[in-house]
Specification:
about 25% strand, single chain, 30 strands, about 575 residues, GMP Synthetase, Chain A, domain 3, 19 helices, about 35% helix, 7-stranded mixed beta sheet, 9-stranded mixed beta sheet, binds adenosine-5'-monophosphate-propyl ester, globular, Rossmann fold, alpha/beta
Length: about 575
């Protein structure tokens, strides 16, 4: 079995930007790259959006295409860097006229279309804080995020606004709903001046925020500063390996961190031409996009690779994908079969990258210049110290399993958790940032992922908190309590499985198989409608009771062990089972 992939010359259509990993790692300094790679205003001021777009206007990149957009119905648009600059300037002026000030939260709830990107840049340019909302979110998910952030403005469209209207009366801070497909709003945006004084920000000032899930409680607002663009830029340069002539496609949605760091900030700050496809997953369409736009660098997710695999190799063969030269993935374990299939289908190995919403940029990766150990996430990025530590924060020797941890202080490390300073502090132990993932480091310094240390679920690469799904389930009149786990799945990595205790009345009713099936469907729908189109349980099992600690906490660990037929482990703290 192939366990190591040695790179030969045929895999290099270009000399990698990072030619010598060891040397760069040894000599790397954030201070040096911040001077050589970013454009600064006087007195140490900076703006991430200016670095992404406007700084290119003094170079031939001004007229280069920044964004190729293809919509769900095949509609096509393209924008140069200059056009992106002007459009986002207009958007910034439009927001100012609405009364948006520095530090105000402006959220975007849009499908992937050019306005999402233009609005994001415009928000950062005037010093406001941009928040993005995944297009599958439903009322509860939207309410939790808009309420906690105290968002003042929401940029959306007529179709999505319907979901917001139902909760708007509970959001006193939300002053404006801007519909980008409403003629009068569009006219106001277009009539705004294209001249904007881009705000000079302190590197520490907040730039954008994203809500992400943990094991317990509501999603938390991870806040990133303007300086985060330094990590995003340099990782894009060395890991995504952008060259001037590249056309790049990142399949992520800016509702998630990958879409912000590598579809807006780090990618455009390198001046790369980006493709955005606004439609749903479809294998033929994806290959068509790769072929039509002559994509050379492609960043995607393991579930997508597995979905392509499922369509077979013959389909790939129908397309001319000879422009591809570098392919990568993120978000969940990249299984060896997917790498092997990538080699067969594209003649290229997928390069795994590991990072999180909280790390703001890639921190561990496989690099074009290094051989790949198949199944490993690779090595720490220059400027990042990664280690495996025990539960006391003591570093463990190579080969031992523990918590994947990082030394704090890289530029895109989250700046805070919005209004929850104690939660922010809880990430740090003995001068390490603790990721919540478990893994090990081998003797050659490669990191290997083992699993989550907590109950966070990764389904199709998307992070889902079990508590949110449980809360949505118990809203249904039939449900007394629910325990939710991630169940391993060969396509989606994990699927959501719910164990549900019903009220006495419903317990009797589900004796009838038809009724039981119907209720399961209804419960799944309840979660979809309430929380998000993607975060619903694909499997539901009715139980008489759930395993709990003496203090009444549902033991998801036991549910998972039972589901997988594994030993249940220490049950001495259990109240009942
Ligand atoms: O468990 C790890 C998994 O995704 C988590 C972070 O999720 P999120 O904040 O949504 O960010 C995803 C995109 C940056 C991690 O704690 N994860 C991410 N990359 C990998 C991974 N698991 C295994 N291998 C990876 N390469």
């Amino acid at each position: 079995m192939l366990d190591q992939f040695k790179k030969s010359k045929k895999y290099f259509k270009k000399t990698p930007n990072l030619e010598n990993y060891e040397k760069t790692y040894r000599e790397f300094s954030w201070k040096n790259v911040s001077e050589s790679e970013l454009t600064w205003f006087d007195n140490g001021k900076v703006n991430a959006a200016y670095n992404a777009i406007d700084r290119h206007l003094d170079s031939p990149r001004k007229n280069k295409i920044a964004l190729y957009y293809e919509g769900p119905n095949g509609e096509q648009e393209k924008y140069t860097f200059e056009e992106m600059s002007q459009k986002s300037n207009k958007f910034g002026n439009f927001l100012k006229a609405l009364g948006v000030k520095r530090g105000d939260r402006v959220f975007i709830f849009l499908p992937r279309n050019p306005y999402l990107y233009i609005a994001f840049l415009g928000i950062l340019k005037i010093g406001a804080i941009a928040g993005t909302l995944f297009s599958a979110f439903q009322e509860q998910a939207l309410y939790d995020r808009l309420e906690n952030s105290g968002a003042k403005v929401l940029i959306t469209d007529k179709e999505f606004a319907v979901r917001v209207e139902k909760i708007r009366h509970k959001l006193p801070n939300l002053k404006h709903l801007v519909l980008i497909d409403d003629e009068s709003s569009l006219k106001e945006i277009n009539d705004s001046s294209a001249e904007l004084h881009i705000d000079r920000m302190n590197p520490e000032d907040y730039a954008f925020m994203l809500y992400t899930s943990g094991t317990t409680g509501k999603p938390k607002g991870v806040v990133h500063r303007h300086l985060a663009i330094l990590s995003e830029h340099i990782t894009a340069k060395y890991v995504l390996d952008f060259h001037e002539e590249d056309t790049y496609w990142c399949t992520a949605d800016p509702g998630w961190v990958t879409g912000i760091a590598y579809e807006i900030l780090g990618s455009w700050s390198n001046g790369v031409a980006s493709v955005v496809y606004g439609g749903r997953f479809d294998a033929s369409k994806w290959y068509e996009i790769l072929e039509k736009y002559k994509v050379s660098v492609w960043y995607t997710a393991p579930t997508a690779v597995r979905m392509l695999m499922a369509q077979g190799i013959d389909l790939v063969r129908k397309y001319n994908l000879s422009s591809l030269r570098h392919i990568l993935s993120v978000g969940e374990p990249l299984n060896p079969e997917a790498i092997r299939w990538g080699l067969q289908a594209f003649g290229l190995p997928f390069h795994d990258t590991w990072w999180q919403t909280e790390t703001g940029a890639i921190v561990i990766a496989n690099y074009p210049c290094l051989d790949i150990k198949i199944g490993s996430m690779g090595k720490p990025f220059p400027g990042i110290t990664a280690g495996i530590v025990d539960d006391q924060g003591k570093e463990l020797p190579p080969g031992q399993e523990g918590n994947i941890a990082l030394k704090p202080g890289w530029p895109s490390m989250m700046k805070t958790i919005w209004r929850r300073p104690e939660k922010y502090k809880s990430y740090f132990l003995n001068d390490w940032y603790i990721s919540g993932d478990r893994g090990l480091k081998d003797k050659d310094g490669y990191f290997w992922f083992i699993g989550r240390a907590d109950d966070v679920i990764k389904t199709s690469g998307e992070r889902v908190g079990p508590f949110e799904v449980e809360s949505a389930l118990v809203e249904h009149p039939s449900v007394v309590e629910a325990g939710v786990i991630g169940k391993p799945d060969s396509l989606r990595g994990e699927i959501i499985k719910a164990f549900v205790v019903l009220t006495k009345k419903y317990q009797d009713k589900v004796q009838d198989k038809n009724y039981s099936d119907q209720l399961k469907q209804e419960l799944s729908l309840q979660v979809r409608k309430h929380l998000a189109g993607h975060a619903y349980p694909r499997e539901i099992e009715f139980m008489d009771k759930l395993p709990k600690t003496r203090s009444g906490k549902i033991m998801r660990r036991i549910l998972k062990a039972k589901e997988m037929g594994l030993p249940i482990g220490d049950t001495s703290t259990l109240e009942e089972f």
